[in-house]
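note to self: dont lose this again. the chain is below, predicted strucutre after it. 98 aa total, dont forget to put it in the shared folder this time
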Amino acid sequence: MLATDWQRPSASVLSRIPDTRAVQYWDPSHLLAKRMAADARDPQPKQKCCVRNEVLWDLAAVYPPGVQWTSQLPPAAFFNGPVVNVKAELEQAIVPAR
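---
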């Protein structure tokens, strides 16, 4: 958790990931993070970090192409962090989607 996580990210922060498939959210109420944690199930990998006060932080999730987010989130193909520590694994998870 960073001090900057308490305010909306700037355009320069959002520009760090230029891939148009990536969606970045600022979720001050942690609604998405709580939902992602609540809907986690097999065959989704279990994250090895990133839970503080029962909220997911600094976690990257990759979903298979074509899956639909409905009343329950689909299992992610990649689900781990912190992002800075899983860069290589995250890149490998994205390759099949290209």
